[in-house]
Every structure is written in structure tokens, then in C-alpha cells.
Protein 1
Amino acid sequence: MRTSIATVSLSGSLTEKLTAASRAGFDGVEIFENDLLASPLTPEEVRARCADLGLTVYLYQPLRDVEALPEAEFVPALRRARHKFELMGRLGADTVLVCSSVSPHALDDDALAADQLSRLADLARGHGIRVAYEALAWGRHISTYDHAWRVVESAGHPALGVCLDSFHILSRGGTPEDLEGISAIPGEKIFFLQLADAPLLAMDVLQWSRHYRCFPGQGGFDVAGLLRRVLAAGYTGPLSLEVFNDVFRQSEAGPTAVDARRSLLTLQEEAGLPAPPAPAPPTGIAFAELLTPDAAPVSAVLGALGFARTARHRGKPVDLWERGTARILVNTGPAERRDGTRLAAVGLESPDPAGAARRAEALLAPVLPRRRAPGDAPLEAVAAPDGTEVFFCATGRPGLPDWRADFEDTGEEAETGGAPRIDHLSLTQPWHQFDEAALFHRGVLGLSPQESVDVADPYGLLRSRAVTTDDGAVRIVLTVGAAPTDDTAHAQHIALATDDVVAAARAHRAAGGTLLAIPANYYDDLAARYEFPEGELETYRELGILYDRDAQGEFRHCYTHTVGRVFFELVQRDGGHRGYGAANAPVRLAAQHAARGFTGG
Amino acid sequence: MRTSIATVSLSGSLTEKLTAASRAGFDGVEIFENDLLASPLTPEEVRARCADLGLTVYLYQPLRDVEALPEAEFVPALRRARHKFELMGRLGADTVLVCSSVSPHALDDDALAADQLSRLADLARGHGIRVAYEALAWGRHISTYDHAWRVVESAGHPALGVCLDSFHILSRGGTPEDLEGISAIPGEKIFFLQLADAPLLAMDVLQWSRHYRCFPGQGGFDVAGLLRRVLAAGYTGPLSLEVFNDVFRQSEAGPTAVDARRSLLTLQEEAGLPAPPAPAPPTGIAFAELLTPDAAPVSAVLGALGFARTARHRGKPVDLWERGTARILVNTGPAERRDGTRLAAVGLESPDPAGAARRAEALLAPVLPRRRAPGDAPLEAVAAPDGTEVFFCATGRPGLPDWRADFEDTGEEAETGGAPRIDHLSLTQPWHQFDEAALFHRGVLGLSPQESVDVADPYGLLRSRAVTTDDGAVRIVLTVGAAPTDDTAHAQHIALATDDVVAAARAHRAAGGTLLAIPANYYDDLAARYEFPEGELETYRELGILYDRDAQGEFRHCYTHTVGRVFFELVQRDGGHRGYGAANAPVRLAAQHAARGFTGG
């Protein structure tokens, strides 16, 4: 189907918006009136620019407060509309969006509304224009799609139809009964379809709509379910995104347009429309790769964690460290950003690496150039929104290229005791790309986003959201700072699973490792909240082990010191606990600030 | 009365919070449990630190989910409480806050709640502790202050009273009837009073409380009215601020604590408690002062606007430019921040400059050092939160020091035609200090904050709020960017009133000045919306004049080009129009971006 985006969804000048929409692969746009007013381009120049960019102007919007008015107010409204229809002729737009009246002078009179909309449609038809009438969720008298349809139906004018908007519909209720009326609308009378999602917030619907809309798949609405119903009704027009969002307004138009189109591709797939190659969710973490200007400090931590340097890349300065199935690459090769040690790449074990890469590419993930030596395994990789390189791997599987084969064994043996594997990775996201990141990991990688959690850092509230496979074999925690400036201020980490965190912590210490010191007050509080076997709490206190419990089970964890931007966590999950220690994160964050000397005591 | 602040209201480590509270002049604090848990200080060390800083620990908080529980759950809750009471003994805190249960296991049984609270109070009394019971607005069964009081009253325990919290009370309704129950509570049973304000948002009360609370006077609640009622009931305990706010969490603790205490001082004044010297609102703008490394470009603009360089400071490189009663100082002296031309100081005409300065100082405004030469007039000045220097002036008034006397006439004469005066000044605020700025201008300067307005810039939503005198003689527009990084990205401006903006614009052009070009599309839209006399719109189009209309009257305005961070606006208000052209601001901002070459077309 044809795809479109409203210019209001993107930042910048009209030219920048159009260029970004075209580059992301949209077929057309809705031109938002304010974007045109602020542009130095004439309507004819906008039309020509769109044509050059391969964009159709599917809609001009909005015309407000034109129906159900006292006649004395309808006349100037019609005059205004005539001006706009002439403008649309210059612009090459053939459909106008009319929003239901919010004017305090609007009358609660459906017959009057139908009559005036007919007169408006007469005028429009004279200009070759169709009127798409939309119920705003906060419309004064007409605020539901089925009410709008009743008015349009009774007007019975060929140039008058409805515009359906997923936000206005779903913000007022999304039960099957709420949506039943859609099938009553003949497909050819649905003149336009606008799509937006939103987080499920209990707030004034106007504020919610103007500031918090997001792209489908980033919020809590069942936009795909709505789309299926609209398609079933026979709608064949463009699928158009219309998102008002305070963060997107500040973001670069280019990446936002890509994020938008990825959202629409994923939505089409969910709604049963022709789709990109099917997802092939990963089955595990093949490796995590650290990029560092100096291997020594991080190697020391890995050694103390029981990792062995088992192999070295044949052609690059990359060491492979292993313990059990946990594999960590330490790369001292040239990096564009040599800002200390950081988690730069993740290898995901994939049932079909080439298929996963094809899907990623179809979903507009930037495919990374393969800079490999002759003989290296052909690794497929894309870049995540935060810049992390994501490799699709087949480790030790016959018939598939194996990254491990590029490495030469050192002869050192990895320990296997204590069930070590990577429990989760934690990656700090750029502030402007948090919603995009969740959508990327869901759509491109096939992971399931979990609930978003607030975490109190001493210097601002962080948000954190895990994306996981259902069996927990892959868990990535996406974290975002309190403000755009915090993009790289917060640490990343690698959490290693163990079946005995006390033993693992003691072994780390015995091997010369350090553990993050946790304040005694924390343990006094644990003693108040839970009863522990004799001596257990003293052990936790001594080692800096944190404790959490939920209905499923228990979670014990502790932290190493930080090297560059990276630290390690030792994690013991029991009884199917599914959390990440969010309740303990404020204490951990404060302790890390204190360890960096940020605080006075 | 004694003043206090909850540690959760300030950012940083517990030590930073306590230090900031003490420096801002609070008598005591509420210790928020999480702040203690995250602190490496022992409770005894916290107690000693507080004593050193002159702070009393008025409250320890919160104890959650202790009442109306099945006995099997009450026993561990009581065990938890015992631990906390022992901790409070070490901390030196004698009052604990107990929030009404949100536990899904809590029973809707007031008698059980009263009984268990009595048993809790028995335990507390054994430790010399009082229990202050507070109804959370989202409590499971007890969510109103009068319900909480009925339970406390029926318990009839000497160590059990209520804690009143202005947010929890006013978020559920603030009518006189809603608040009547307060007078039914004996003052000595009100164990604690927590004060917070909040903007009037229609949203889930828990989210509203956790993220959007602000200091009294910064939101929409009548906190002073509530305080008067609590005082009338006989409450004599501390006035304690408890604010959960996402922005304050990211801000430096020091300035936030000052903002908090200023809020409390202003609140005490409004509630009829002993107060700082009475406000002396300004009667006009004496001058605006531009700081610039190079006087030539801004002098050229002033000259073309009809200003004359009428005088020069006797001891400093400062020129006085005048036109009518509009006075602009151009200062080329040494500046700490030589980042191009900026609006650095504002002179406010004051009926009592010395009194205004005393009030400002009492309200914790930083008093600026007087660096004047012998013989200079003793000008009183303070710094606003954005760093702007605010001078309290008496221009040409016998018996009062006159800043004008420090200037020597050049002999040039100022024009007087066209009613020129400063209509308003627009100052960009640091992102973290927008609420503080509004409170500063209201409390310290005696201006009235107007409604906050959203303005769409092409690269993010701005917020704008005017602070004015009732007669409009002083109007200052405070603007804030979309993100913390935008603090200084946006321009400041000086708007000059004229009784004929067309003549003023023509004169400016004729004198060599340039006016900001406004896109033709804007005028096509004006033509659609309004009917103008023949030729008028063409004049606006030619000159770049923008137009707005409201129920009161009309507003016409145009803009010069920008010098450094500063531009000028010519403004014609008719019929008592009270706006600032917010509807036109997106077009103006886009045009300014285009003029700076930010956009592609």
C-alpha cells in the first residue's frame, strides 16, 4: 500500500521534512498548514520539490471549525475554505482534512453539520477536491468516528467522506465493540487513514495527543488491529503517519523518518499486508565486544571474573575471552571514538544469520560494511540506533560461516563451573532515540519489549526498558538518561549469570578483583524487610551483594568497578525471577557516583 | 515558623542535599528513606552532620502499607516498623510518616486500620516516636485527609496524629467545602504539614504527584489558602516542602534549595505569617542594557530605529541610546561572558529602590556587588535566575539616587514621535530554572505571571510565559528551549511600542535598517482568515509585518535582523490587545532559522 507521513511529524523546515520523508522511502506526505506558512517556497515550488522527490501530496490539513456554525460564522469559514482550495490547486493536493468543530459557537445539530459539510463539499468539488471529515477526540459535539460517519452518511455528498485517525479512535476506547462501527463504513467513503500510537497515559486527551503520540509499535494501542478493520472495510488509500511528539520535534528529521517508516513496515506485517522477510529471533548471545584503547584494565577484570583469553583473531587486534558460554571480545583496533572502554558490538546467535540480515536491511537498519580479511567468515551486521554493531552469528554450526573460525586458540582453557553465561547486556541509549530503540529491537531483531521502569539516579530520573526473547536467552536492557546531554554519561554493563553469586563474588575478590561497596544502611533496610538465614545478610554486606524478591523468585547481584564506560555484574536468578534489580538501582547508582568521587560523602 | 524540606526534593547525595538545605536557610529536613539507604554515612553520622549544619531531622519517611492488613501481614509490617524506629533513634528523628496502604491485601475496614495504627503507635511511643498518618490521594481504601483523620480520631492514641499534605488534599479538590474538615482537626493532632504545589494537569494523580509537583507558587493550587486553614486549626509544627519533580532531580541542589526557600517565604507572606519587606512592584522599564564586544552593529540598528546616542557614562564604556521613553544602554566594558551581543541587564523603575532591594535580598536574590566609581549613583541590583542583572531605579526623581546622573549628555537629541517606549523584553531562561524564574519575577519583583504558552520552533517546542504589571507598564516574556542544551541557543529581544508600525517599519528601512522577511504563504493565510482594507495586506507583505487579533484588539509587529543573540521588534497594540504574537511565533522562528542559514530553503 502507499505510505505517507504528515510533515508535522518531522523537525526542521518544510524542505528538510520533505527530503527526509523521501529518503526514508515514503510515497507521499500530508502537508501540515503551519509548515507551509513558515516556508519560503511558493506552493508551486513545494509541488515541484515533491515531484522531484517522488512524493505525492496526499492531504492538506487541517481546516478547522467549519461545520455546525451559525450561518453568520459559516460564511467566513466558507470564504476561508475557498482560499485554501485555491492554494491546494497550486500545491497539487486533492484531499483536505476537516476536523470536527471545537468552536464554542458550534451547535449541537447534526443536520446543520451535514448541511454545511455538504455545502463545503460542493465548493471543494468545484476545485477537484475531496473533503475528509475527522472527529477530534475533543470535538465540541462530534468526537467519535461513528458520529462523524453518521453525519457524513446523512450528507450523502460524493465529495465528502471520513478521515479515520487511530489516535482519536483508540484514545477513546479500543474494545472490539468500540471498533465495530468501522465495518459499517463503505471503504470508498473512508477518504483517508491517519495512524499514530501513544503510551497508555491517563491524562487530558488533548495534551496526550499534542505531546505524547508516537509511531505505531512504540506505544500501547492496538494500531494493527484497527488497521485490519479499516482494510477489511475496503480502504485502499495511503497509510499515513501523523504524530505530534515533543521529542521528535527536537530530533533530526532523517533518523525520525527512518524510524517512522520502520514502524509502518512492521505495522503492515502485523496487519497481514505484504511484509519484509519473516523475523528470526535470536537464540542467545554469541558474544559482547568491548572496544578499548588499552586492553590491560579490562583484561584484569575479566581474568578476576574467571575468564580465560582462549583465542586471538587471526587478522585483527581482538582477543576472545571465555568462561562457560559467556564470550567477550576485547578489541584494541582503531576506533572512530576512542573515548575509553565501551561496549561496541553484540553478537546474536541466529537460527538464520543471512535471513536475519535481510530482514534488518528491509527494515532500514544500516548494514555495516564488511571490513574483513580474505578468509574471514562473512559476518552479517547492522547498526542499532545507538550505534552498537549487531552481528548475526552461527557459532560452531556446520554449514554456516562461523566467526569463531577467524580466531586462533591460545591454548588457555576457559572455566566451565558455576553456569556462566551472559544474563543480560545494558546499553545506554541516546535520549532522542529511546522509542526508536525499543521498536528497532522488536521489529528488526524480534525481541519483546518489557515494561518501562523509572530509576532514580541521584542526578536525575533514568528510564529503563528490557527487550528479551521469551525464554530469556537474550536480554538487553535499554537505558536512557534524564536529558539529551546525558547520552554517554551513564555506564553500560555486562551481567554474567551464575548459580552461586556468593561463591562467584568471593572468587572474584580472591583473584584480585574489586566489588562495588554498598552502604551499610541498605543492609539494615534488608533486615527490616526480609528474614534471612543466620549469617546470610552479613555475607551480602561483606561482598556488596544486593537482593530483590518478587512473586516468582529471588535475585541476587553485585558489581565490579567500572572501566571506561563499562562494568560487570554477577547475577543469580532463582525461581524464575524476571527482573533486573531495578529496586536496587538507586543504591547502585549512588555508590557508583560516590566511587567516581562525584559526591561529598 | 520552622521551615523544612524533604531530601527527595533536592538532587545529589544525602550530604549534598543536607548542605544545600542548610545553606538556603532551612531549619530542618525530612529524611527520605531512599536517600539514607544510598548514603555511606551511618545514621549517627547523618545526625551529627545535621547538627553541624544547624538542621533538625523533623521527619523520617515513609513507612508504607502497615494498616488495615490481615494479621499475618501486619506482623511483618510491625517487625519492619520496629527496625525503622530503632534507626530513627540513631538518626535523632522523633516523627515517622505513615502513608495509607496501597497494598492489594489491605482491607476496607476502618476499625481494623485504627486498631493496627494504635498498635503501631504503641510500639512507636516505646521509642519516643510519634506516628503521622497521611492519606495518599491514591490510597487503596483511605485516600482523603478527612477519612484519615476519622481513623486517627477513633484510634484515640496520643502517639498517633495526621500528616496533612497539600498535594494529596488539593489534587482531589480545593473548594472551601473540600477543606472544611481541616478545622475539625485539633491543631495538636496535626503532627506534620507537607507543602507542594503542582500545575493543573488532568492526569493520573500518581504520575502527577511523582513527576510534576513543584514549589508553592509555581503551580496552580491555592497552597496559601490551605496553609491558612491549617494554621487556624492550631498547627505549630514545621512547614515542610516535599516535591517530586523530574526537573529538580536533574538540577543542582544549591539553587533548587534557594528556590524552595524563596517559595516558602512568599507562601508565608501570602498566608499572613511574618514576612519580608512588602513588595514594591515596578512602574516601568528604566532601561535595557546590552553587553557587546563591538558597539558598531547594534548601534547601527538602534540608529536606524530612530534612537539617538544621547549620553555616555562618565566612568565606563557605556552609551545611552534614547527614543521617547525607551532607553537602551550599550556596554562595551569587560564582560565575563563575551559571547557576542546579549541583553545583560534590565533597569526597573521602582517607587522605592532601596525597599525593593531589601525585599529581593530577604527573598534570597543574589545582591550584586556595586562596582561604581566615586560619585556614581548608588544603584541597587540583584541577579535573576538566568543571570540577568536587575537594577531598581529612580529616573529623574528628586531626592533619590539617579542612574541618569552618571551619564554625560552628548548633545544629540532623541526623537519623541510615534509613542516609543519598551513594550516588552524577552529573555531566554535556563531549562532547569523556568519555574524558578516565574516565581522570582512574581515574588521578588512583584510581577504577575501570565499563562504558559507552547510555541512551535522548527527544531523543538518552546514554552513562553509573560510576567507583567497589571497595567502593562512592565512586561517581560520568559522563554525556555526544548531541552537543557538549548539554554543559550535562542535569541533575546527588545520590543519597542509604536502607535504606527507601518510608519515605524518604513522609517527603519529608509534609515538603512533591515526587516525580517516573512514568507508569502503567511500573507495568503491572513487573506483567508481576515478581510483587510484595500492595500493593507500588501503593505504588511512588503514590510514583513505580522498580524494577530483577539477579543480585545489587534496586534501588528515586525522584526529587525539579529545582532549576536539580540533582535528588536516593533509592536503596535490596539484596543487593549494583551498578547505577544504567539500565534505568529512559529513563522518568525522559521524565518530566523532560515536567515541564519539553518534550513535548506
Protein 2
Amino acid sequence: MHRDRFYTLSASCPDQVGIISRVTGFIAEHGGWILESSFHADDITGRYFMRLEIRADSLPFLLAEFRERFRPLAGQLEMDWKITDSAVKKRVVVLVSQQEHCLYDLLARWQSKELNIEIPCVISNHDTFRGFVEWHGIPFHHVPVTPDNKLQAYAEVKRLFEEVRGDTMVLARYMQILSPELCLAYPGQILNIHHSFLPSFVGAKPYHQAYQRGVKLIGATCHYVTEELDQGPIIEQDVIRIDHSDSVADMVRYGKDIEKTVLARGLRYHLEDRVLVHGNKTVVFR
Amino acid sequence: MHRDRFYTLSASCPDQVGIISRVTGFIAEHGGWILESSFHADDITGRYFMRLEIRADSLPFLLAEFRERFRPLAGQLEMDWKITDSAVKKRVVVLVSQQEHCLYDLLARWQSKELNIEIPCVISNHDTFRGFVEWHGIPFHHVPVTPDNKLQAYAEVKRLFEEVRGDTMVLARYMQILSPELCLAYPGQILNIHHSFLPSFVGAKPYHQAYQRGVKLIGATCHYVTEELDQGPIIEQDVIRIDHSDSVADMVRYGKDIEKTVLARGLRYHLEDRVLVHGNKTVVFR
Amino acid sequence: MHRDRFYTLSASCPDQVGIISRVTGFIAEHGGWILESSFHADDITGRYFMRLEIRADSLPFLLAEFRERFRPLAGQLEMDWKITDSAVKKRVVVLVSQQEHCLYDLLARWQSKELNIEIPCVISNHDTFRGFVEWHGIPFHHVPVTPDNKLQAYAEVKRLFEEVRGDTMVLARYMQILSPELCLAYPGQILNIHHSFLPSFVGAKPYHQAYQRGVKLIGATCHYVTEELDQGPIIEQDVIRIDHSDSVADMVRYGKDIEKTVLARGLRYHLEDRVLVHGNKTVVFR
Amino acid sequence: MHRDRFYTLSASCPDQVGIISRVTGFIAEHGGWILESSFHADDITGRYFMRLEIRADSLPFLLAEFRERFRPLAGQLEMDWKITDSAVKKRVVVLVSQQEHCLYDLLARWQSKELNIEIPCVISNHDTFRGFVEWHGIPFHHVPVTPDNKLQAYAEVKRLFEEVRGDTMVLARYMQILSPELCLAYPGQILNIHHSFLPSFVGAKPYHQAYQRGVKLIGATCHYVTEELDQGPIIEQDVIRIDHSDSVADMVRYGKDIEKTVLARGLRYHLEDRVLVHGNKTVVFR
């Protein structure tokens, strides 16, 4: 949505007096124009978080030199940090099964440039959406997953992700549980949309569980994938009201609307480096 | 909200062809004017639910005679049913501890006649709100609860509830777990407000649990109390958005706003006989 | 979502004692199994509204005979009524301009059979989505609209709609104001999605108006099109929270998510005969 | 919610490179510990906004000296600014008529110290709540307002507000239109709760207007009072879903729940110096 090219610096470090001053002082010294800035101090853990957008053309050097010059200060502050360039599109690999709502939704956002990304390929355990994906000019890979071939299948997914130099993997209602290897290989890079308001209704058939319990709202959760099923850091959640007249099939239908919206919001936060993972939680600078 | 006196018939029975026709036929036969009517068929269990509001002055007889005349049809349909009179105020006993938000809220609604009820007394394990409650002309009973006196304390609560001929007991953030005896004595008559979006975060300190898990919405649940803690039929729920900057104390503060609203909505549904319990779930005809 | 074929009877008539009884009595007499039923009395105007779903295989005759047999009772009750068959798909003509979010969303719902419809054609004043629409096997008509050719253009839209025997016309962010002739030709058949929470911000550039006024929520409204711009009966609305940091471009982006969801919900209510128009308002039996 | 005393600096100034750096540099220089910080650049007007919470005990001087020392920098940056002390409670004068929901709600929040304020008096055009207010130990002033005495009445309100050294005036469903003199005397100090989602349904009887238009959500708006009725800068808004079955009386009842919540949220933002007025809009740093 920004008209101009900008860099996004996101970082965390132990809290102390003077962090904002020193970081923004460094930027100001070089004439850097800060477009957007967010800071958060976690009182409990004493960790400090920040995110800054800086106009690229306000700085007298490029990103490589920024990194070089910023490194000493980052070292003094014991920072975990990165800086990215809005002109470099993130490469998002989408994994789907046989439900279209998230896939159509993501491709519409990609098509309209609402999501400023490349989709180097779509991977699926079914061949259902080959035509639709290929019509958009995006390569489609059918990688079947059976009880017997899981190791090979996920090795193939990993190979494809590496081959296309993916930054982010999105499980857009993929309906398969990734192998621990894959989860561990890409921490903070794999996003899932779970069709319940976590931590309620972990695992399979959450709408059936919700129906059984008689809840009055159902939800969806976008989270980073970790080794433990549906236990990763939560990025975004939302809910929708239901009532006694709604069957499981109705919930599935309503649920799709929040699933795709929550996934799209969570993905955008992730792509814009608005999400900083902190233990099993997230700081999300909206 | 109705200008005129009306009767509310609520019922459930095994589903079959012709239920609505036979019940509304009975009413029409006597000239009964139906103000509001709701029906629900549960496909899974084959049970049928209904709620009807009938203008009192449109019928040529009083409630006692209605009951007498309706009984044969209800028998044929194997109905669980009841009919109540809007002119007879329900008697609601409120239990509180030391948090005022739900108490102030309920008394404001009682004062303004938004809730068409009598509050024959307020019971508390602390003496904190005696003055406030008594200023409203409502008797206040201090029944301390300690680890040692629970049996006697809940026996006293039961005695007071019986003495004032209570219809409904409301745990307005009462912070004590009722004895199984009390729960079993009044099924479908005791309402609790739990400060989480159940089934997430059952039991103590749900906001601490929510903080730990890093959820992005927190909620409140109004449910009927059963022997199993926080497992009773859910009447109403709602949520509010939070983010990483919110401490547990912030969540407690935000939470109060949904707790009191959800409790008030759930209580109103209950008082207007809009809630029909079905196993561990509810049908709520709003 | 119903497994079985059913008929939907929707009707309104002057209120009087015995309506439900007589209508459901007629159905019960023929063994009709009512799956879902909703009733509403408008106190102010004295008009009565109803909607009933009846299992097709529970009746001993087909729809034509139902209509024949029901007509006398409908006449006595002075009913406006219709009955439709879930096995007959409604024919929905979609009009779009150059924004894809509603189009992708509708086609995903059509593809997955969430919307039980035929889309006999898509009409657009631009050629942008020809490929996408035709890939789905749906005919695409490019009908350019210029200041000079409006009359002919809308005559052509009308001709196409008639040619494909359309039931419903959906303006899926069509961005053109239909001619009065077209509006008058299809009352209660043309749905629009307006990108504001009506009645706020009528007409052009509602997000710019919202930005100027500094509102804290933005919305979308699905309504029937009438001769007066953005004044037709409202079917569905929703809102999303924004804040001071959101530019007009951000609002446009957020707005798309509610626009497509609100349009899809409103369209489903319409297609399932859940919407009864009453003056400039709607009864929506969800 | 903060355990410790802190100062809140809120400011706006023309945007330029280096603002954050210079302001936080000044604070860091004196060892100031920043607890919370928010910044916003308005792209359209080129104005920059900020809010900082600084731990009082981290600074080597008191507020008076902070002001003295900060003044030169503020001058260079052409800032509008103020700094307040969390240990000094704001003095909030509440104006009510005959509806209790906002009054009970505010007093509950004051009682529980959720709102860290003094309420030096309540003023009403009716005597209805004298007992309730006085029971809380708060002076109550009955200032009747008639078509003939408006000038004197508002002069008396002004006199009382000055006498108790009020900081903020809250119209808690006051139902009277203040005189232009009063509005102009306290810009950004008088908060109103309007019972509609502005700009829809300005003026009297908004729920009747909403009923007539057939909207599917109703709302409430907390805004600063200006000379123009219901046109002042919006601080906070929210909505609640209704449907065709809701009468105006139902809307009034539902509306109360959002009115009191929206007012309380808006008031808290205001009291914590989270609201910066900018033309007819607000920046709200939540």
C-alpha cells in the first residue's frame, strides 16, 4: 500500500534505557525517513521488540551497507534483527488439498497485487486444482501422501520448496500433518490455518467437536507450524456467531469465511515482517 | 418489552409430522393470538423444540385452565413442556464475591425494569457489597465460605434460596465452586458466568492461561451449572480482541465488559424461557 | 446443506388469529414434513411473514399440484406467496467491472457447490476477466458502458439476462449505476454490494468519505437495487475495525474482505428465499 | 494498570527526519525509562503524532523541571505537547438525565479503581439519581433545563465545573444539547455518547431512524462535543447485530450495552492521554 520503496527493520533485544533513541538515532544520522514505527516492551520477560519502516530513497546507501553499518549497534544491544526490502517480493509456496476457498482467496489477492508476493508453485496431495492453478501461470505439483510414503512425500515437498527458493510455506487447508523434519527445518516460516478457535478443538474435525460441545461461536486460527500439532505461536484469530439451528455442515460453510480471512490477515502480517515470535507467542505490530 | 401480558409456552417432544399444526391448532381453536413463535428440529436426535408467546387477553381462560386443557395433547405428543405468565416476575437470587461489575450491571437492569424480575436477596461470601445492595432495598446475606465450612455454607445458601422461593440462582462472578448437592438440586436453574471462551481455559485464572497461550481474542461464557466444573450447557458466549501489548491485568479489565454483557444476555434468555436444555447443549430462541 | 429435496414456501399476509395453524394444518393434512419454519409478526404494520421448508418426498403430489391445492387457503388469507423447489437451481447473472475479489469469491462458492446455482453468464463493462470466467466454462459478455451509450448498454444487459432466463442479477462491485428501466424491471431480483455501512456514505468513494469523517469502523451493505441510488431494502451488513493509521488504500483492502462476505451471505439468504421484502425493509429468516 | 507512577508525554508536530530520535534522545540522556511508546505520521497532512509513557522514578527530576528542560526541543520541533502525571487523578464531572446504564457503569468502574479518576460531582437535569450518587459519597447537583432557562442552566453547569476544577465533562446520556458557549469553552474536554453509528442517524431518536431504514446493525459513538451537533471528532465506536424481529424498544435495550461500553472505552483513552485531536479527527493510541 506504500507508494514508495521502503526497508523494514524488525528486531528484539533485552530491554534497557535508550534503545529507541540509539536505533532511531542511527537512522536519523543518515537522514533516514521513518514511515511507520512500533515498539513493545514485554514486562514479564524484559524483552524489547520493534519494527520500523524506512523510506529507501532517504538513505544514502543500499541495504547491504545498512546491514554492515548497523551491525555494531545491534551487537551492543544483543539484538536479533533483520531488515528487508519492499522491492523484493517474498516467495510463498502454497499447499492445498481439495478445498478451494483459501486457494481462490489467496490467488485473488495475489492477482490484484494486494499481496505483494511471488507464488513460485502450488503443491497438493490431490490433482484437483491443477487446471485452475496452471491457468494463473503458476506451476502445480501433485505430491500424493499416503500412510506409507509420508517420509518421501515430505522430502519431495522440501525439495520443491528449496528448488524454488521459497521464503514462506502456507498450508491453505492442507489437511495433512507435516513431518517433524519439515516443521523443524523452517521455524517461523510455515503458516497453517486451523479451523477452530485454538486452544479449543485441537486436531481432527474441530467443527464436529464444536457441535458436540454446543458452543455459540466458532473460530479459526492462523499460527506458525511447530512439531506439536496445533500448538505453535498464534498469529491471528477470529470467530463467527452460530446457533442451535446450525448443523456441522453449516459450521463448515460459515467457517470457510473466517478461515480464508484469518489466513490472509495472518499471512499479510507475516509477509510485512509484522510478526515477531517470542517463545510460543507472537508480537504482531499491525 | 411487550406492552401486554402474555403466556410463554416452551416445549420439546419427539419429532413427527403435524406437531406445529396440532399445537397451534389448539391455540387457534380458543382464539389465542400468537405474538412470537419459534420452532427447531434437531436432525441428529430427532427431537423437536418450540416456544410460543400468546397474548393473555386473547384466551377465554386463565393459565390453570390452559394447562388442564393442553395436557391431553401434550401427552399424545410426549412433550416436556411448561407455560409461564409474563405478569409473574421470576425471583432471581444473586451470588457475588468481591467484584462489582456484574452486580452493578444486574442492579442497573433491575432498577430500569429492563430485567422484569424480583431480586429477593443477594448472597455473598464477603460483606463488601452489603451497603450497596441494601441501599437498593434488597436484603443482603453474608455467608462466609472457608475450606472447612463448605457443607454448612452451601446448606445455608440452599436454605436462603428456598426461603425466598427463588426461581433462578445467578453466580455473578461468585468465585466459589458450588457443592454437587446444590448443583444437582437445581438443574437448569443456576447460571454462571465463566471468564473464558469455553471450552478453552476451564477452571482457575483463565486470563492467565490465555496470556500464556498467546490467544488474540478473549471471551466469556454464560452456562448452566452442573456437577462438572465449567462443563454445563452453554447459553451465550462472546469475545473481545486483545493483542501482545495487553497484560493479564488489561485482559481482566477488558474481560469484565464481556462478562457482564454475556451474563445479562444469557440471563434474559433464561428468564424469558428462550433456553431449552437438550443433553449438554441448549436451544436458544432469540 | 440439506441432504434431501425440499420445497420452500415463503409468504406474507395481514395478521390474524390462526394463520400458522391453517397453513401448517394444510401441510400436515397431506403428510408434509416441515424441516424448518420461521414466522414473524410486524407489530407496527400488522403484516405477518413466514417461511417453511417441506420435504418433497413427504408430500403425495408435486409442486404444481401443491400450488393448485394451496391457492384457496392463500386467497382466504390474502397472501403474497411463492413456493420453490430445491432441485431447481436459480440462475444468477453476475455483473463485474475490474475488481476481482467478489468474482473470485462467488466462483469459488459456485465451484464448491456451496451456492447451489447456475451462472449462465458473467457480464462486464471491461474485458479484464474474460479468460478467468471462460476457464470456468461460463460465458462472458463484454458490454462497454460509456456516458453516451448507457441506454443501449443496459438494454443489452437486459436482453442477455432475458436470453439466459436469469432469476437474479448480482452487481459484484459493478461500479456502474443501472438505468431506472433496469431497476424497475426486476424489483427484488437485483442485488448490489455497497462498500459502506449504509445509510452512511451513500454514492461514490465511500472509503474516502469514511476517511474524512474519521470513523472507527467501516462497513459493507448488501441491498436490493431500486431506482434511488443506495436506498433499496437492506439484506445484510457488516463492519470491520480500523484506526487512525489506516489510509484510504488500507480501508479499500480491509473493505474487500467484508464486501465479499456480506455479498455472499446476502445472496445466499436471497437464493434460499429467506428474504421477504416489506416496503423498504426486509425480513430475513436466517 | 501500571504498578508504578509514570508520566505521559503526548505531542504532535510537523513531520521531519529525526523526531523520534531527538525526543527519545532527550529522555534517554536523563536515564528516562520508556514503558510504552506510539508514533504516527499522517501522510496527507504531514503532521506527526506521538505518545510516550516514562517511569517517573527513572528521571532525576520532577515534572516541572521536565517541562522546563523539554521546552527548547519542543520549540525547535514546533510541537503542541503536554505531559501528565499518573499520580494526579483527573477530575471528571458526569452529566446525566434519567437513564441509569451509563451512570451505574461509570460508578462501578470508579468504585473498582478501573478508572483512576475523581468524580467531584454529578450534575443532572432531573433529581432521579440523587440518592444513588450521594450514597457513593459524590455530590449531586440538580440543574433543571427548560426551554426558557437554557442560558442560565448552562452557566450554572459551567460554574459548577469550574468550582470543582473539572478536567473532563462526560455526557452520560445527558439528552440535552449544550449551549455553544459551553462547547467552545472546553474543546477536547467534553465527551458525549451518541446512540448511533455516526455519521448515520444524527440528532434525535436514532433508534427510530435505524428502525425505519431497516439496518442490520446498530451502533454507538463516543465523540468530543463541538458546536455542531453530533459532528465532533470521533473517539470510539461499536455496533451490535439486530434483525427484523427487533422493535425500537429492543434496539434501545441492546443499544444500552454498546453505549456504556463505548463510552467507557472512549473515556479511558481520553483520560490516559491516548487521544490526540487533529482537525475533526482523532489519533487514538490504544
